[in-house]
Design goal:
2 copies of one chain form a homodimer. By secondary structure, chain A is of the alpha+beta class. Chain A is 35% helix and 23% strand. The first copy, chain A, contains 7 helices and 9 strands, in the order αββββββαααβααββα. In chain A, α5 crosses α6. Chain A is globular and about 55 Å long. The two termini of chain A are 28 Å apart. The N terminus of chain A is likely disordered. The interface between A and B is large, with 43 and 43 residues. Chain A binds a DNA duplex (30 and 30 nucleotides) through α6.
Chain lengths: 241, 241
DNA sequence: ACTCCCCCTTGACGCAAATCAATGCAGCTG
DNA sequence: CAGCTGCATTGATTTGCGTCAAGGGGGAGT
C-alpha cells in the first residue's frame, strides 16, 4: 500500500544478472563483451545515509553506476554555498564531469542506504577501444547528461520547475519498472529546493497548491501523481515528453 | 536561413596546419593519427550571418568544430520560446548533445560570417576505437561540456551571471591567443540576455553599472575589461578561476 | 543628407519568489 | 513520555528583476 522505494540489485550481482543492464553501461553489449566489462567493475559495500562516495577536488579515478538507492552530487561555489547538481537513480552514472579536469568537481553523497558499481576509468577507456558498443554507449550517456543539464537552464517559473522535476522522477522510475504515479521523495525538501534554485518555503507552498488543485497527493515523502496530463501541461512538457 | 550542405572549399585548412589544434579534437594526436582524422573531416563553405548549420529535429549525422567566427545553438521549448544554449568559439565543438537522441535538439546559427569543420559522427566513432588518443579527447571534451552546462545552473544574481559571462568569454579568447581584456561582443544584447535568462533591459543596466563602477568600458560591442580582479570577485569566480 | 528600422537605453511600475519570522510536527533519546 | 532537534509549513514583508512604455542612436538604403 505504501509507495515503493527502488531497491537493490544485491551487491554480488554482475552486469549480466543485473536488471539495470538495459539502462546502464552494458546497453548494446553481447554476453561475452558484458563479461569483459564485469571484469573491470569493482564491487563496494553499501553507503550509509550522507556518506560520501568521493569529494570535490579528489583525484579522478573511477566513475560510478548506481546499483541501488539514490545519490546526489553537489558542488560548492566560491562563497561556499552548496549546489545540488543532480540526483542519481539506479542504472545512472555519476562522476563523468570529472573526466575533463581529472579531478572530481562535485561531492557524491548517498541519500539513505545505497550502493554503486565503481569502474576504473582508465580501464574503461581501454576496454572501450576494444568494444565499440561500449564506447558508443559511454558517449551516448555523456551526451544525454549534456542534454539533461542544458534543459535545466531554460527559464521557468517555480511552478514549472517543480512540476518538471516531479515528472522527471516519475519517468525515470517508470523506466526502472516502478510506479510512475506513486513514489517516495528520498531527498528532503531543502535538497529539492536547492537543486531547483528555489527556497524550501516555495517548494512547500507549491506542493500544497498542486495538492489543492488535485494534481498530486503528498504527505511527508509519499508522492502520488493524480493528474499526469495537467502536470505535464503545467511543466510545459520540458522534461518528460 | 535554411541548413546548408557543406561544399568543398579550396581553402580547406587541415588539422595539422590549423592553429586550433591545441584546443580542438586533435589534442594528443601525433602527426600520423592527425592525418587519419583529417580524412574524415568535411570542409564547408563559410556560413553567412544567421545562416543555420543544422536545425532541431533533423537527423544527427555530423558534429561540428568551429573553424572561424562564432556560432550560437538554440533550443525552443514547448511554448515556442527560443533559448540560447551556448556560444561557440573557434576550436569548440557543437552538436554533441545530438548523439544520445540521434537527432539535433538545437539549431546552430552563425553570428556573422563563420566556418566549421564537419565531422561525420559514425566515422568519428570508428576512428576513435582505432585511435585511443582521439577517443580520450572526445570523451574529455564531452565531459567538459557536461561541466559547462552544469555550472550554468547554479543560482546567481543577474550581476553575477553577467560578470561570469564576460569572464568566460575573456578566458576563452585568451586561450585562443586574443586579448582577454578587450574584445568584441559578436552577439546582440538580446542574445546575451536570452542566454543568461535575463531581460535585455537588465543587461543594459548592468553594463552601465559595471562601467560606472570602473569595472569595464563598453561602447556598442567593444568591451574593455578594466578591473579583472573586481569582476572576478563580483562573479564569485564561478566560471573562470 | 534624410528617413526608416532596429537595437539599445532609460525610467516607472508590478509581481513572483526570496527572506524573515513564527509555529507545527515527527522521530530520537534519556 | 517529556523534551530536544531538525525539517516542514504557514504567514507577513521585502526586493530583484521582468514588463511596459517611451525615447535615443547608428547604419543601410534611397
Amino acid at each position: 500500500m505504501s509507495a515503493q522505494i527502488p531497491v537493490a540489485s544485491p551487491s554480488f550481482l554482475k552486469c549480466s544478472q543485473c536488471s539495470l543492464g538495459k539502462l546502464c553501461l552494458p546497453v548494446g553489449l553481447d554476453t561475452q563483451d558484458m563479461h569483459r566489462l564485469e571484469e573491470i567493475i569493482e564491487s563496494a559495500a553499501p553507503y550509509q545515509e550522507n556518506e560520501a562516495v568521493y569529494e570535490a577536488d579528489q583525484p579522478f579515478k573511477r566513475i560510478y553506476a548506481v546499483k541501488s538507492g539514490m545519490f546526489k552530487t553537489q558542488v560548492s561555489d566560491a562563497q561556499g554555498n552548496e549546489h545540488i547538481v543532480g540526483f542519481h537513480l539506479p542504472g545512472e552514472l555519476f562522476g563523468l564531469d570529472a573526466i575533463y579536469p581529472q579531478k572530481y568537481v562535485s561531492t557524491a553523497v548517498a541519500l539513505g542506504t545505497a550502493s554503486v558499481c565503481a569502474i576504473n576509468y582508465s580501464d574503461l577507456e581501454d576496454l572501450s577501444t576494444k568494444l565499440p558498443s561500449l564506447q558508443r554507449q559511454l558517449l551516448s550517456l555523456m551526451s544525454k547528461e549534456v542534454h539533461t543539464s542544458q534543459s535545466m537552464n531554460i527559464d521557468q517559473t517555480a511552478e514549472q520547475k517543480l512540476a518538471a522535476f516531479i515528472l522527471t522522477l516519475s519517468s525515470r522510475y517508470k523506466q526502472r519498472g516502478y510506479s510512475d504515479t506513486r513514489f517516495n521523495l528520498l531527498m528532503p525538501r531543502r535538497d529539492i529546493a536547492n537543486h531547483l534554485n528555489m527556497a524550501p518555503e516555495t517548494i512547500s507552498r507549491l506542493f500544497k497548491r498542486f495538492q489543492n488543485e488535485g494534481l498530486i497527493a503528498i504527505q511527508r515523502n509519499d508522492l502520488n501523481i493524480l493528474d499526469m496530463d495537467r502536470l505535464q501541461t503545467l511543466a510545459g512538457c520540458s522534461s518528460s515528453c
